[in-house]
Structure formats: structure tokens, C-alpha cells
Design goal:
The protein is α/β, with parallel strands linked by helices. It has helices at residues 74-82, 150-157, 175-183, 187-212, 214-234, 241-252, 254-270, 275-285, 287-290, 294-322, 328-348, 352-418, 459-462, 465-479, 497-510, 523-527, 553-565, 570-582, and strands at 38-47, 50-56, 61-65, 98-106, 126-134, 139-143, 146-148, 161-164, 425-437, 440-449, 457-458, 485-489, 515-519, 531-540, 543-550.
Length: 596
Amino acid sequence: MTRKARAPRAEKTATLSRPSPSAPAGSVPIEPVPAGPALARLEVRNLATIRELELDFAGGLSVFTGETGAGKSIIVDALGLLLGSRANTDLIRTGESDLLVTGFWNEVAADSSADQSRTDQTSTDQSSASRRLAAQGRGVARLDGEVVSVRELQEWAQTRLTIHWQHSAVSLLGPANQRALLDRGLPDQSAAYTHTYREWQEARARLERLRTNERERARQLDLLTFQSREIAEVAPLPGEEEPLQAELSRLANLETIAQSAAGALTLISDGEENALGFLGEAVRALNASARYDEASAALQQELRAALDSLQAVSGELRAVAEDGAADPEQLAHVEGRLGALGKLRTKYGPTLDDVLAFQAGVEEELAALTRDEQVAGTLDADVEALFSEVRRTGTALDTARKQRAAPLAAELLAVIRELGMPHARLEFRLSPLPEPALYGPSDVTIQFTANPGEDLAPLSDVASGGELSRVMLAISTVLGADTPAVVFDEVDAGIGGGAALAVAEQLWRLARSRQVMVVTHLAQIAARADHHYKVEKAVEEGRTVSRVRPLAPDERLEEIARMLGGNTSEAALGHARELMEGRDVKEVKPSDRLKV
């Protein structure tokens, strides 16, 4: 369900407008980003060297560049907080009491273009997420202004944004992640196998319990049967203790009750002067006046009614006064019943309701153990049948994996070779397991080598950090990101020359179907960007401040020249101009474009 956007409470509401950094003449327009939540705006306050920052975003490829130490990765840190990453109070700007990061998403895709030549068709359906961290360590997460847990914020954001941190390519070293890459295109076969495997494991575990715990089960049956019988013999009723306690109190104090009734009886009827006598005289005293006065007659009638009531009470008091000794059998019955209930409460309580709940649980366990005994004879055959089904679905899964492995490896390898590893080889290798596992009957590992003449070996054993980064980029390009927006934090580390141009091309291709943001130090990547932001650091009032701003075309040229040679000489500017013009020379063929 799409939330209706509103700014977090007590926080500034931003106007959600798209940026409009100009692009060089002749730039290639971006194709519309597919439907999906797109990050439209980011607001940051008091994060590290950022005092206050407001950035608008659009689709396509956005790059962040700047001098070393300018704080380029702070943008990634801010987005990481919205993804639920661990909050560290060291991130709070020195001297400030808290930091705040707020992101705004367009929940329905909007058309956009690199040169902003078309009128934006921006949806009004927008959502916001924010995270505040106080210096004292307390934090607050919000979705559309409503306070939520960090886990809820994380679950919400993870469907919209993926961050490839500078060293996150190491996740490829995990066998589970390598297997998941292959199984991503086999959801039906994988789900069928997993379902059958779990059924088999549950049946096998149940059969194992029956076989290994028969003696324990017999003891458990005896205990549960005894407990059930003990409670059933008393047959406690909900709420019966309170009236029993009241009855016991009455029986124990009958003598006091009788004496009190006798004293009241003396005053009402048995004394020389008593209430009944006085009330009778009062009735008679009104005889004369009642003949002539309706009010007196009415009062006399009320006195007669009171006389009748008092006579009735007198009779009841007499019965109580004469019952001064408790019936031993009745007293013993009440005491015995309370004693039996108390014993049950001591063993199964502490309250009678707890006893009844315990009884229900015992009956349920007894029924389960009885069923186990009844099905033990047929469960073995069920386990065998389920294992046969596991083998069948496992064979189907491995067959599908093998059919997918070669084409997927070829697609990945084509991109990897473009990224400066022309002699690389890669394949998915299936190794049968001694016994089926939850993920399948075989292990799946990526075998890799970047050097000619070298044998294939597990990716985790032979790939360097730079090679891992390029493999990760190839995977993101070929398989697409799992979210509408994807962020790369210096994924180009250790890359240069022709490989840098290839990395730039791959990022640009990915940006045809995703909103892609890249923190980079490579001019080749910056030249391919649809939107270019520069991170700058300055000193204001004795304090270091980082700022981020979109660059105009002439500013982009100077920034790319700086990235190429450290200066803006005519030679550097000429080279930068060639790079920026080159970004528009290649046109991606329709067959090469990513499909979502």
C-alpha cells in the first residue's frame, strides 16, 4: 500500500522538484525509468561535515565527484542511515545535538530526460522516510511522519534502494550469495524443491523422535495421563473458589451470626419493649385521624406495610438465631473442596484459570502423543515417499541450474572482459552433496580466473579486490539491481585506462533501467553521467563545511579536467571535452538495453 507523503513531524517540508543541471549539446536523452519508487530529494542536517544540505534527484546516472577528503561518501552514509545501517553518534556534527536525514520518493515513476528537454510528468504520489540520531544515543525513525522501528524503516527502504559499499563486493565470496545469483532466475524450481525438502525434514525428524524417544514418550504418556486424571477427578470450575471461601467463612462464624441475630430479634420483637409493639401503637394512634384526613390514612397504610415487613424480618432473624451450630458434614465438604482446588493450584497454578489452561495443554499433548503412536507404523513409508520427491525436485532444480549456468556465465563474462580483464574465464560449478540440503542437492560455486593459462578456481580464492568489484558490477549490469535505485560507492577503485571506459559504459547502461548514483574518482565515469554533482569542502567561521551542488556544463568540463590531470589547463580541458563528446558517440543497441 502506498503511503501518502508528508514531511516528518516538526521537520521542514520540502518542495519536491527535479533538478535541472544542463547537459552538453548533443547529449543522448535518457529513456524513461521504469515504474518504481525513485529517490526525488535528500535532506541532510548536521551529518559529519555537512551542516545543511538539500539535493534534488532525477533518473538516469548521477555522479558525485570532488577532491580527496571533500566528503563524497557522506552522501552514501546518509542514504545508509535510511537503509537502517548502524547509527554511530560520531556521525553527528561536532557541537550539534542531533543529526537528521530525510529522503523523499516518487512512488510512481516519472518521465525524465538528461537534458530536461521535456516537461516532467511527476506523480503526486510521494513518500518520505527520515532518521534522527541524538548525541545522547537516542534515535527516531519515521515513515511519512509516523514513528516506526528502525527494522520497519529498513524493510521499507530495502525495496527501494540498494547500496554497493566500497568493499561490499566481498559478499560475492559467500557460497550462499553465489548460489543465489544462479537461482534468481529459477524461482519456481527452487520454491518447489525447498517446500518438499522441508516436508521431508519435518517427517524425518518426527520419525526420529518416535524411534529414539520411545521410552521417554512412554514416561511422558504416564505423566500426562496422571496429570489429566488428577485434574479431571477434581473437575474444577471457573470462578468457584470465591463462593466456596464465602461459605466457609459463614460456617466458621455461625455462633457469632446467631448471637447477632438474637440481639436484633430482642429489639424487634422479643424484648419487653420492642419495635413491633411501638409500631403497632403508632398504627392505632392514627385510627381517629385517618377517618377524616387522607394524608393521615396514607401514612397509617405505610406504617402497616412497615409493620408487615418488620414481622417478616423478625421471622427470618429467629431462624438465623436458632441455627447457631455448623453442620459438620457441610463444613467438611466445603473445606475438602477448597483443599482439593488448592492442591491443584499449588501444582499447576498459581490460579484456577492457570490450572484449567494447563489441563487443556495436557489434553492436547496427550492427543499428539497418541497420534504419534498411531501413525508410527505408516510414517516410515511417508518419509521414504517424501525423500523420493526431494530427489525428483532436486534433480529438476539441478537440471534447470545447469541449463541456466552456461548462458548466465557467458553474459557475465562478456561484461567482465570489457571491464579490463580480456582473458577472464568464469563458470558456475555444481558439486553434488552427500545428502540433500535446504538449498538443493548440490553446492554452487563461481569458478574464476583473470589470467591466461591459469586453471579455474573458486572466486573466493583467486579474485583480488579490484576484480571482485568488476565482477559485482557485471552482475548488477547483467542481472539488474534488485531495487529501482542503486548506489555505488567508489566501485571503480583500482580501475583505470580502457577498463574505466568500460565501467562507465556499464554504469550508463544500468542507468537506462534504474536510477543509478555513483561516488567516483574516474573522469571517464563522470563524463558519462546524466547528472553531475560536486562535493566541496570549505572553512566557514572556523568550521569545516561540506557542500554538494549540481554542475553546469562549463563547470562539468572543468571538474572532469581536474579529475584527469589535477588542473584546468587547455590540454586537460581539451581531453575532458573529448571525453564528454565521446559519451554521446556510442548508442546502446536495443538488444543491449537492460530489461526489467
